[in-house]
Each structure stands twice: as structure tokens, then as C-alpha cells.
Amino acid sequence: MRSLDPLDLYEIDDLLSDEERMIRDAVARFVDEKALPLIPKCFDEARFPAELIPEIADLGLLGSSLEGYGCAGLNATSYGLICQELERGDSGLRSFVSVQSSLCMYPIHAFGSEEQKERWLPEMAAGRVIGCFGLTEPHGGSDPSNMKTRARKDGDDWILNGAKMWITNGNIADIAIVWAQTDDGVQGFIVEKDFDGYEAREIHAKMSLRASITSELYFDNVRVPDANRLPNVKGLKGPLSCLNQARYGITWGPIGAATACLKEALDYCGERELFGRPVSATQSAQVKLADMARRITSAKLLSWRLGRLKDEGKLHPSQVSLAKWNNVRMALDIARECRDLLGGSGITLEYSAIRHALNLESVITYEGTETVHQLVIGRELTGHNAF
């Protein structure tokens, strides 16, 4: 009887194409060789490793699922595997790529003019222009319809006023994709960093996503040319479709974090001896480790199926909600359990479990809290909106 890979008990690797495995392995090498040597120190110092951006771009990871304009045009599963390996390194790395790709490049690609696509997308794919996504507001949180940021028409321009909160990449962004109420519904605008009245302020003293930049954005009578308005979408379907793209990647990312924690716990429990035997030889440790493997296997199958549905054009937003809810909760629980198995060592940055656990406290909250996704599924099951 053959031995199974402890990190792939259902041999899900066999469901991937040769190209998908090649892409995953290339990103895995980058994470192992370039990112992981930096990440613990960056987390400790609350610093985003911006020096990795050129290589991330050279690997074709920015806008990787988009067609044309210097983008790689990869399928959905390949994009998911990219997110998985990046988050195996750190949630901050995956968040950077998710925001650039799904929240900034995607709306320009889907809703922008040809001039906007030609101007911004090749530079963003090359990592020479960084974007951020302005939807969440200080008072709004999970209710984007309660948007206070407004844009009013003034000749050939728009005057933008308001504030956005919890914005990844804000202080390194060259452009912000900002959603604002107008007299004609919610519309999206490309706000350039040198526009008068636009300010980004970094949020400090975070205990989560410390190797990521999080900002507040302020707009004080910012004059935005109509040429910077996304012309091909109106209403909340614009920003919500962007979030659906990003949430899809988030279903994959925590699998990487959970796998990193499980591997670390397996190695540690196999090496550490207590009461005359390895920790891994005890029933209590084996039950915990087996439960982790079960939950990771289920999450992998959910995301793999989700990727195939996305490529077939059959993806439903509620399916993304189910996977985001399940997979992030899975990873957070595993990171916490692995931290416990590591004992006192688990609270140090010598090991990754505490870092992943802290990061996943943000991941389970952003782009739809766990409760929001539970209610999405509840609505799907019952037909009643309980929001």
C-alpha cells in the first residue's frame, strides 16, 4: 500500500493540469527563497516588503487572470494557486496581489474605457503603478449601501468628498479606485495620488497584517476629471463584482496558511519528545493533526471546484461566500491549534502559527465578515433576507 502525502491526502494535486502545477511550483519557490526569509522580520517591524514587488511582477502575478494589456491571462485555478502559495508565506503578500489584481486592475479591465486600460493596466501588471481600492468607510463596514463619500459633477470634472477606511496598499498606491455616491448612483473613479485634496494616512499599532500597509483615505474637494471615471458601470454591482473576484482568491489563500501551520506542527511534534516518546505518538496530538488534515482536504476540494465553475462561467456569488466562510474559519482554527501544539515556542516568530493566526483574524473580517457570508447562505437556503 502506497504512502500518502500528509499535506495532500486526497491527491488533489492530480486534479491540476501540468500548467497549473508549474505555476504553483514557481510561486512556491519564490515564497520559500525570497519571501519567507524576510517575512518574520517584516511582521515584527510592521513593514511591507516592497522590495519583492518587482519579482512578483516579473512572475506575472499582477492581474494574472486578465487578458491582454501585459497580463498573463491565466485560468481561475491558477490564480487561486497563486493566492494559496502567497498566503503560505503571509496574508500580507496575498492581500497585496489580491488588491492590485482583483480590486484595482479588474474594475479598470471590466468597466474602464479603452484609454484607461491602455494607460494603467500595462504599468500595473509591471508593478510600476500600485493601486488601492476605496469602498469601506469608517461608519459603514459590512453595509456599502450606507456610503457617505460623494462626487458631484462640476463642468467636465467631478468634486469628490469623503473618507475610506482599512485600505490595503493605501500609502504606497499611485492610484485609488474610489467608489462614491453621485446623483446617478454609485460610480467608480480613478483618483491619482497627486490630486489636490487627496490624502492617505497609514494605520499603525496593528496586531494583524503587520507585514501589510493599511490606510485611511481622505478626499477634500478632490477634482477628478471625467476621463478618470469608470464609464461602464453604475450602482453597487460595480464594487460588489470586484469583491467577488477578490473573495474567490481569498478562498484559496487560507489553505496556504493552514498548510504551513500543519507542516510546522507535524515537524515539531515528530521531533519533540515528552514523557519518553515523540509528541506525534500521542493520541491527543494525532487527533488534532488528523482533524487539521480533514479540514484542509475539504477546503482544497471546495476551492478546486469553485475554480472550475469560475472558468466555466457558472460561478454564483453564494458559492464564493460558502468557500470564504468555510476556508478562512478552517485556517484560523488550525493556526490556533498549531500554536497550542507548539507550546511556548508557538508565541514566537521563529514559528509561523502565531503570525498566521493573527493575520487570519483580519482575513475572516475583511471582504465580508464570517457572519455576512453565513447570512448569504441563509438567504440562499430560505429565500429570506436577514440582513
Automatic annotation (TrEMBL):
Pathway note: Amino-acid metabolism; lysine degradation; Amino-acid metabolism; tryptophan metabolism
Q: Which segments constitute the Acyl-CoA oxidase/dehydrogenase middle domain?
A: 132-222
**Superkingdom of origin organism:** Bacteria
Keyword annotations for this protein, in alphabetical order, are: FAD, Flavoprotein, Oxidoreductase, Transit peptide
Q: Which GO terms describe its molecular function?
A: fatty-acyl-CoA binding; flavin adenine dinucleotide binding; glutaryl-CoA dehydrogenase activity
Give residue ranges for domain Acyl-CoA dehydrogenase/oxidase C-terminal: 234-381
Known catalytic reactions: glutaryl-CoA + oxidized [electron-transfer flavoprotein] + 2 H(+) = (2E)-butenoyl-CoA + reduced [electron-transfer flavoprotein] + CO2
Give the Acyl-CoA dehydrogenase/oxidase N-terminal domain ranges: 17-127
Q: Does the keyword Flavoprotein apply?
A: yes
Q: InterPro entries this protein is in?
A: Acyl-CoA_DH_CS, Acyl-CoA_Oxase/DH_mid-dom, Acyl-CoA_Oxase/DH_mid-dom_sf, AcylCo_DH-like_C, AcylCo_DH/oxidase_C, AcylCoA_DH/ox_N, AcylCoA_DH/ox_N_sf, AcylCoA_DH/oxidase_NM_dom_sf
List the PANTHER family: GLUTARYL-COA DEHYDROGENASE, MITOCHONDRIAL
Instruction: Please give the start and end residues of each transmembrane region.
Output: none
Which protein is depicted? glutaryl-CoA dehydrogenase (ETF)
Q: Which SUPFAM superfamilies match?
A: Acyl-CoA dehydrogenase C-terminal domain-like (SSF47203), Acyl-CoA dehydrogenase NM domain-like (SSF56645)
Q: Does the keyword Ribosomal protein apply?
A: no
Q: Which cofactor does it need?
A: FAD
Per the record, the similarity remark reads: Belongs to the acyl-CoA dehydrogenase family.
Enzyme nomenclature, EC number: 1.3.8.6
Q: Name one GO biological process term.
A: fatty-acyl-CoA biosynthetic process
